[in-house]
From TrEMBL:
The keyword Transmembrane applies. InterPro entries: YczE/YyaS-like. PANTHER family: INTEGRAL MEMBRANE PROTEIN, INTEGRAL MEMBRANE PROTEIN-RELATED. The chain crosses the membrane at residues 12-35, 55-73, 80-104, 110-131, 167-190. The keyword Transmembrane applies. This is Uncharacterized BCR, YitT family COG1284. Keywords: Membrane, Transmembrane, Transmembrane helix.
């Protein structure tokens, strides 16, 4: 254990932690838009409301199930980032959502809702970039698509991810959650923005930390 701790790049861990905090802010903004969240977050929110459990706690319970799968078939994907994302992301989302709604009301005009979705895309993409690029561990839900790709190499990662997100969106809808523009944009629109932040921001931050 002590050797494992010594090998941790704590500078990268800080970047990853900040990324998770920013990711929580982005998800909260998506929720504020009223046009749907990313498929997984939307599913968790809808199911949590159905069973009457706080979103952050329900997310932890669901992550435990995915974490078992990750331990069995994707142990190499586990890191400190896995634990932080699984245990604390829900609380980051709840904190920021409560903070924002204590200051402003949720937008009720379509134009402002669309603008809110766009802001959510930008902030969430930055959070994803800062959480993933340091390679400090993969979140339990995100690991499922990677495990599927490894188990069935003929199926591209893109289709594994899309299928998982589609199932999450379907469950969200069946549970009474919102599946809308925010869901669609987050399912297909994060890639280019995450790549942009990877190239023009996060990679440069990590390079400076290595000096």
């Amino acid at each position: 254990m002590s050797e494992w701790i010594r090998k941790i790049n704590w500078k990268y861990v800080v970047v990853m932690l900040i990324g998770n905090i920013i990711l929580g802010l982005g998800i909260a903004i998506f929720k504020l838009s009223g046009l749907g969240n990313d498929p997984f977050s939307g599913m968790v929110m809808a199911l949590a409301e159905c069973v009457g459990i706080e979103y952050a706690r329900f997310l932890i319970l669901l992550n435990l199930g995915f974490f078992v799968i990750e331990i069995i078939w994707g142990r190499k994907l586990i890191g400190l980032g896995t634990i932080i994302n699984a245990l604390f992301l829900g609380y980051f989302v709840t904190f920021f959502y409560n903070l924002i709604t204590s200051v402003i009301d949720a937008p009720d005009q379509m134009a402002m809702q669309v603008v809110t979705v766009f802001i959510g895309v930008i902030i969430t993409s930055l959070g994803i970039s800062m959480y993933q690029l340091p390679k400090q561990g993969v979140a339990p839900y995100d690991s499922i698509s990677l495990i599927m790709t490894e188990k069935w190499p003929k199926i591209p990662y893109f289709w594994c991810r899309v299928s998982n997100d589609a199932i999450s969106a379907l469950v969200c809808w069946l549970a009474g959650g919102i599946v809308g523009l925010g869901t669609l944009v987050s399912a297909f629109g994060f890639g280019p923005f995450v790549q942009f932040f990877d190239t023009h921001f996060t990679s440069k931050v990590l390079a400076k930390l290595e000096k």
